[in-house]
Design brief:
Elements: H1 7-10, E1 22-23, E2 42-47, H2 51-62, E3 67-70, E4 87-89, H3 98-113, E5 122-124, E6 127-132, H4 136-148, E7 153-155, H5 157-163, E8 174-179, E9 183-185, H6 187-200, E10 204-206, E11 211-217, E12 220-225, E13 228-237, H7 243-246, E14 253-262, E15 279-283, E16 289-293, E17 301-305, H8 329-338, E18 348-356, E19 363-365, E20 373-377, H9 387-399
Parallel strand pairs: 1-11, 2-3, 2-13, 3-10, 6-15, 13-20
Antiparallel strand pairs: 4-9, 5-9, 6-8, 7-8, 11-12, 12-13, 14-17, 14-18, 15-16, 16-17, 19-20
Helix pairs in contact: 2-6, 2-9, 3-9
The protein binds flavin-adenine dinucleotide.
Flavin-adenine dinucleotide is lined by residues 47-53, 70-73, 80-82, 87-88, 210-211, 238-240, 242, 257, 259, 304, 352-354, 377, 379, 381-385, 424.
């Protein structure tokens, strides 16, 4: 067996630019726990240690599978799709009923991961979905709840107004659905903890190391990085907004997506705390939804529009991180109408990216059933809440285990219907 080598020991081999997957012969072998096979530096490489990749590395490592994790920046960085301190966590997932199972698995895994950090990962506050009874925010949430027998509460307009008077100017026919299992997850803390847990379970982690190409070769893959190359039997590519660069043809579009925080119009108003104003998604009118939650930290009250024509497709290596008035024009207008207790001019804006798939569902699995390659991406703006459950799924796929949920709806080669996803 070859001695384990570190990527840094190899030295650069002249692969400065970004190349996509190259394919030689197609052959893979089943993985086993323990040491990696002769001729391999590890059984698995996970490329990109953001939301999906950090948790995949952790779930592989706890299985005893030799794994190398490579991240171009420092884990928990602010340059991909997982910065901004909070993400909405919901269990009654209106995007697909199977996601209820993934959200519950994620919650259990985050409870386990909490042992690796003093920083809170998941806070359950409950959350409310608001819109006309026939709007997708309501029908999708109820469909997921009914499919899984979730104990959601249905509120009339009056009950909604009484419980959360911060929401004003409700659309005609609005009702509420209360998801008691909703809350916020803290992305940077979760990623850092997952990388820490992966390393503690035996994973080799290489931060600040960019993968420049993945060559699928006979029996495995050669992963080429800015610090050298290594050979593995399988590679998991979870590079978020950069996924299309390494694995083209998945139908992904990274979008420049600002995040915006607001303060109460009246500084004495204490009704916009996280407890007093927990997570919500709201159909403000026929064309626009907003999502958000009360102040979870000093950043303020986080509110965003579900989609905004000012948010544009980007090359993730060339994102304009400067802020202009266009970046908050729509959300300011919607806040002004729907949440008049807030000052509609954001107190904070920072840049992020959403990577849309063609149908709004994630892209998880083996493209063309290749035994050497697994991808995880296409977050479509609602994947962080599922990150640990996705890590577990990708680890199961790599290890050849039965998956805990049917993954046909996220298969990279699925037939696609138009994107109906409108939620976080
Ligand atoms: C404004 C906004 C609000 C959102 N709100 C919610 C929400 O409320 N709830 C929710 O569930 N989801 C939400 N999302 C979506 C969620 O944040 C994403 O689904 C999630 O962060 C995507 O994770 P990822 O692993 O695909 O990408 P990332 O976390 O960005 O990870 C990809 C990683 O790969 C690394 N990488 C890329 N290329 C290379 C390379 N060549 N070599 C090495 N490393 C590489 C990157 O540096 C990065 O660390 C929101 C997204 C945005 C932008």
């Amino acid at each position: 067996m070859l001695p384990r080598r570190t990527a840094r020991e190899f030295g650069p081999r002249g692969h400065g630019g970004m190349g996509s997957i190259r394919c030689e012969r197609n052959a893979g072998q089943p993985l086993a726990a323990g040491t990696s096979a002769a001729g391999f530096d590890a059984d698995v490489a996970v490329v990109g240690l953001g939301a999906m990749g950090s948790h995949t590395a952790w779930r592989l490592a706890v299985r005893g599978i030799p794994v190398i994790g490579v991240e171009q920046f420092a884990p928990g960085h602010a340059l991909g799709s997982s910065a901004g301190k909070t993400r909405l966590f919901r269990v009654a997932c209106l995007e697909h009923a199977n996601l209820v199972t993934v959200a519950r698995r994620s919650r259990a895994l985050w409870q386990e991961l909490q042992a690796h950090t003093a920083d809170p990962i998941l806070q359950i506050t409950g959350g409310v979905m608001i819109g006309p009874a026939d709007s997708r925010v309501i029908t999708g949430t109820l469909a997921a709840a009914e499919a899984h027998g979730l104990a959601v509460e249905r509120w009339t307009r009056d009950q909604l107004v009484e419980r959360f008077p911060q929401h004003q100017n409700l659309a005609e026919g609005s009702v509420g659905v209360w998801d008691p299992e909703a809350g916020v997850v803290h992305p940077e803390a979760a990623i850092v903890a997952a990388v820490h847990a992966a390393r503690a379970a035996g994973a080799e982690i290489y931060p600040d190391t960019r993968v420049t190409a993945v060559d699928l070769v006979d029996g495995g893959a050669v992963v080429r990085t800015t610090a050298g190359s290594f050979t593995v039997r399988q590679v998991v590519v979870t590079t978020g907004a950069w996924l299309g660069k390494l694995v083209p043809g998945l139908g992904l579009t990274p979008m420049r997506t600002p995040m915006t925080w607001f303060d109460p119009a009246d500084p004495a108003d204490d009704s916009f705390t996280l407890d007093g104003f927990p997570v919500f998604i709201r159909a403000v009118d026929q064309d626009n939804w907003i999502w958000g939650h009360g102040a979870a930290d000093s950043n303020g009250v986080k509110i965003g529009p579900d989609h905004d024509d000012n948010f544009t497709a980007v090359d993730p290596d060339r994102v304009d991180r400067g802020i202009s008035a266009k970046d908050h024009a729509l959300v300011s207008e919607l806040v002004s109408k729907a949440l008049p207790g807030l000052n509609p001019i954001p107190v904070r804006i920072s840049m992020c990216m959403v990577t849309h798939s063609r149908d709004g569902q994630f892209v998880l699995g083996r493209p063309r059933a290749d035994p050497r390659l697994v991808v995880g991406g296409g977050d479509s703006g609602h994947a962080f809440k599922h990150a640990s459950g996705i890590g577990e799924l990708l680890a199961q796929i790599v290890a050849g285990e039965a998956t805990y949920v049917d993954t046909a709806f996220v298969d990279p080669d699925r037939p696609v219907a138009p994107d109906e996803s409108q939620a976080r």
